Automatic annotation (TrEMBL):
Domain Exonuclease: from-to ranges: 7-183
InterPro entries: Ribonucl_H, RNaseH-like_sf, RNaseH_sf
Keyword field: Exonuclease, Hydrolase, Nuclease
Gene Ontology terms for molecular function: 3'-5' exonuclease activity; nucleic acid binding
GO cellular component terms attached to this protein's record: cytosol
Designated name of the protein: 3'-5' exonuclease
Coiled-coil residues: none
SMART domains: EXOIII
Cited Pfam families: RNase_T (PF00929)
Gene3D superfamilies per UniProt: Ribonuclease H-like superfamily/Ribonuclease H
Amino acid sequence: MSNWSDTLAVFDLETTGIDVETSRIVSATVAVIDRAGEVLERVDWLLDPGIEIPAQATNVHGITTEYAAENGRGAAEGVAEIVATIREHFDRGLPLVAYNAPYDLTLLNRESLRHGVTPLVAPSPVVDPLVIDKAVDRYRKGKRTLEVTSAFYGVSLDDAHDAGADAIAAGRVAQAIARAHASKLPVTVSELHDLQAKWSLEQAESFQAYMRRERDPEFVASGGWPER
């Protein structure tokens, strides 16, 4: 297994919605796992997003508007801490694992700008198990959600849509992919980062072509990675 996967920072957000431009952070986890997938460090945040948490979002992660308002940190303070923690891990040379990274990292960027926090600039190196899995096992049928992909690689995910559980599972999936597909992956994480940007663009172009052919001639898919 490539040594880039020996020690990984892992990151996940739970939010108010799916639109990265308007959604707010509700909870977040940044942790560090070792080669065996064991947690070495972990920080969790619960934030008061300052807006109503829609019922459909609460149904996913279980956090209500009232609970976040009563127990959550101020959004600006929390966002600043999340960014600082990720930046510290990059400074230590740790890759950051985020499943479907453009969602979490773009939303974190928009929240940073919203609250006057200096955002991450060109975050790197990032490891996105979703992009990698689609590239190394392109023709596998079925969904590629974190739950499905975790099960495929034998990674336990007992509390899906909890930021901590999802972040740690994503890191373990990245390590499982590194073990299963070592011959298809570069040795260095910097090479892997660049390759994922290329893969993400190719995957978006393929999906866009499919959607235009089958459903909507005007459909546009973004391939920007790891941020959009």
